Amino acid sequence: MIRHFISLKSFSKPDIYKLINLALDIKRNPARYKDVLCGKCVGLFFEKPSLRTKAAFCVGTVQLGGQAVYYAPEEVQLGKREAISDVSRTVSRFFDAAVFRTFAHESILEFAKMSSVPVINALSDAMHPSQILGDLVTMCELKGDVEKLKIAYIGDSNNVCTSLIHAFAILGGNLTIASPKGYQPDKKILEEISECTKNSGAKLNILTSAEEAAKGADVLYTDVWTSMGQEKEKAKRKKIFSKFQINDKILGLAKKDCIVMHCLPAHRGEEITDSVMEGKNSQVFLQAENRLHTAKAILVYAFKGI
Q1: Where are the domains of the chain?
Q2: Residue 79 above 80 pLDDT?
Q3: Long-range contacts of range 101-107, CB-CB < 8 Å, 24 or more positions apart?
Q4: Residue 207 to residue 242: CA distance in whole angstroms
Q5: Most distant CA pair in the chain: distance in Å?
Q6: Total-model pTM
Q7: Is the alpha carbon torsion for 300, 305, 54, 289 positive or negative?
């Protein structure tokens, strides 16, 4: 059986917790996993630039005993230089797994359909499951039971937000999203997770007030207002999102021991201020570090299962 990692929607609650616990065990006992990928070669095919995701999967592969080969955006060009199905069948004969970072989620789905090796979603326009799995690892490490926390996501309902919704719809817990009108989660996404939410007992609140969302929060989470591919909207978005900044005032509405998270890169002075980013509540760089341990857990899953 080929074990792809494309969306958290594909995993059950017990399996997500197994992945979280696997990442934490890898972090605590790295030597135990140093030969898991011995003799394996992982291809990274990135249509978008990356710092943390590239480092996490490249370094993670090497630390697990394997080798990584990185293809830059200008080298990939899925569907342009040649058909995605042809690339998939070729890659499957060279690599033991393929990690993709792409603009179109459909490209990953099409690639996986023809692939005979595991395919890992390292970000698409629709989802960023590896990021959110790493975030869950951070929340569990610092706060324990995530189902008992109030998570407040403030900002654009982008791919990161979508995977956050998927995670908490499956796990349960309390997730509040504050976004301007017109930039809230797509209704199709909310319809897709409605049955899952009923089963898990998750509480999902969609608001238009950052202040209301932040009240009593255990976790404050934000992301850039303008994602890659939306650069032409930057000036417009900066104006629309001006009241959705995590600053000292917003932080003051959350619990005193609230943790602040940002998936990075951060546009300081826009979605988050320097004072919050560098403050005692910020766990942004622990969050970044945990991307490595999570990438390793995903790779172990792909090759060995959980």
Answers
A1: 8-127+291-304, 130-287
A2: no
A3: 101/44, 101/45, 101/46, 101/47, 101/48, 101/50, 101/53, 101/54, 102/45, 102/46, 102/47, 102/48, 102/76, 102/78, 103/47, 103/48, 103/228, 103/229, 107/78, 107/79
A4: 16
A5: 54
A6: 0.96
A7: negative
CATH of 8-127+291-304, one of 3.30.1540.20, 3.40.50.720, 3.40.50.1370, 3.30.230.70: 3.40.50.1370
> Is residue 231 scored above 90 in pLDDT?
no
Q: Give SS3 for 120.
A: strand
Q: Which are the catalytic amino acids?
A: 101, 128, 131, 223, 263, 291
Q: Please report, to the nearest 10 degrees, the dihedral formed by the alpha carbons of residues 296, 202, 180, 278 taken in order.
A: -50
Domains 8-127+291-304 and 130-287 share a fold: yes
List pLDDT tens digits, range 2-40.
Answer: 999 999 999 999 999 999 999 999 999 999 999 999 999
Q: Using 50, 70 and 90 to split pLDDT, how confident is the model at 116?
A: very high
Looking at residue 306, its amino acid is I
134-160 pLDDT tens trace:
999 999 999 999 999 999 999 999 999
Write the CATH number of the domain with boundaries 130-287.
3.40.50.1370
